[in-house]
Amino acid sequence: MAYFYRNKLEKDIASKAVIASDKFGLIENGDRIVVALSGGKDSYTLLKMLSLIKAKAKFDFELIVVNVDPGFNGYRTEPIEEYLRANGYRYKMISYPILKTASAKLSADDMLCSFCSRLKRGVLYDVCLKLGYNKLALGHNADDVIETLLLNQFYSGALSGMPPKLQADDKPITVIRPLYYVFERETMRYAIESEFPVVCCKCPICGNQDMRRMQIKKLLSDLEKNSPHIKNNLLAAAGNIHARFLSDSQFNPILEKNGKAK
Asked: Of 25, 43, 245, 261, whose CB is crowded by the most CB atoms within 10 A?
């Protein structure tokens, strides 16, 4: 059945998702994709875009939506399930005591938000394996990509980020991020216009431990006032590495002396 975009915003977001998919091979014929739906604006946008791509694609792939209830007091799955049921999605609702598990296993060097994300990712990997799905689609947007790139440089001393496509360690699962080129302002506006039943994560420390990311957001917002293309440039930089102008001897052999870095 032919689908006509509701408005320019929907068409723009879908076009960016298609560009990312075509450029990085995110969605391919025969793929079985688990779509992680937290109930936030980005994950709803992700689901809608994948649905649009599926409706228009000349090849076939399969989608199933998975929601992980982290066990936070007040987190409501009912609006999410109602939306999925009303729109005819195949889905699976899972409960996992994320906070309880994180609190028990968290090391002194771990940030709770990052640790919880890894736990949830592990749960989603397990679902992929049990159901026989080969890809996991996450709703990270372009702002997430840029902020992570800067956070790792500022606080971890590493040039590393959030790639559009990543092979899971020791698992036959590929993580994909179709919203790689879509900015947060777009998903926010789209979620409002689409009247998605957005659900707050209800994490008891939400906003407390993620101050570094909020600082990066403010920094980018301030810089953007005088340099409106700064986010686009940073996003482009993530895929435009000139390794010989960096100091990692793994990529620049001239820095080595007698087999050891100078």
From this structure: 43
Which two three-digit tokens encode residue 22? 């075509």
Full residue range of the structural domain in which residue 30 is found? 8-203
- pTM of this prediction? 0.92
- Is there a domain that residue 123 lies in? yes
Residue 199 is assigned to a structural domain of this protein: yes
Q: Which amino acid is at 204?
A: P
DSSP string, 50-88: HHHHHHH-SS--EEEEEEEE---TT---HHHHHHHHHTT
Tens digits of residue pLDDT in 194-206: 999 999 876 666 5
What's the rounded Cα separation, in Å, for the pair 13 and 4?
A: 14
Rounded to 10 degrees, the C-alpha dihedral 240/246/248/253 comes to 100
